[in-house]
What we know:
Keywords: Iron, Metal-binding, Oxidoreductase. InterPro entries: DIOX_N, IPNS-like_FE2OG_OXY, IPNS-like_sf, Oxoglu/Fe-dep_dioxygenase_dom, Plant_2OG-oxidoreductases. GO terms for molecular function: metal ion binding; oxidoreductase activity, acting on paired donors, with incorporation or reduction of molecular oxygen. Belongs to the iron/ascorbate-dependent oxidoreductase family. The protein is an alpha+beta fold. It has a single domain (10-319), classed as Sandwich (Jelly Rolls). The chain contains nine helices and 15 strands. An eight-stranded mixed sheet has the order 2-3-11-8-13-6-5-4. A five-stranded mixed sheet has the order 1-10-9-12-7, with no helix packed on it. The chain has a two-stranded antiparallel ribbon with strand order 14-15. Helix 2 crosses helix 5 (129-154) and helix 3 (58-72) crosses helix 5. The longest helix is centred in the middle third of the chain and has 26 residues, at 129-154. Residues 1-14 have low confidence and may be disordered.
Amino acid sequence: MSSNGEPTSFEVQDSIPIIDYSLLTSGTANERSKVVQDIGKACEDWGCFMLVNHGVPETLIEEMMDVSSEFFEMTIEEKLEFEAHGVLDPVRCGTGLNLVNVNKDTLWREYLRLIVHPDFNCPHKPARFSELASDYVKRTRAVAMELVNGVSESLGFESSYMNRELNLDAGFQLLAINYYPSLLEVDISRGLMPHTDHGLLTLLYENGVPGLEVLRDGKWVGMGGGVSNAFSIINSDHLEIFSNGKYKSKLHRTVVKDGRKRITLVNPNGPSLDTIVGPSSRLVDGENRLPRYLPMKYRDYLECQTKLITAGKHAFDMIRIDI
């Protein structure tokens, strides 16, 4: 660690867990049982894993990357139509520098955030953007919900328990598209500051340009490289809250060193906005297993976190209970 508490070392490891999604959905009973155990171990030990054989067509992903690139290549005037305002605006586009640390170092990125469930929202341009995005988010949502079923079982619950308790049928899902221009477009450091995500699980797909790093034992570890056609799956804040700290939310960041442009398709998946999320009642008993987080409505958490992040703080600071 550096003097200001920031991790300073970086290493690439090939031991990030890899989960075969097809065994969860169409494997034998023994194969499904084993992959559920593997998901639980990955969520507990790493807070992330790579997902292969997920069934989302590679051609659809490539088309989404292409149309996303087209969006960010529009003129500034065209993109201003979708300028960011409130955190719950259906469509938000933004660009600029984000603060990285107390030394006021900055990184550049552009982003487009779409609320895609329970209602689907998307810019009306470029052509086919809405059509492709609608198909993409339906498929990634199906993957995310099946993973949540597996996570639910790994915690010792029935597969439908988390869906039912968190009202996931009306769950809040985003499609966040991050764009890091090539060095030919901007001559500045590109990336995204260390952070955790709201929701249960985040699905992330990159365009082949590396940059995603997760914090592991005080070191930044590259994630995603060398595993073809795979989603990076990352534990998020409300999985930590609901599991009462068993499955920790994963701190991650983006540092783009490759000179090419980087595009990521990111799907945070959470409870319904009006769901009050706290530790599962099945994981606390008031005696030996005390709740470690205060309950908070998901909508309030999103709004609170958006306000705090600019000050370098986290909504966890408000709900974590010191035991």
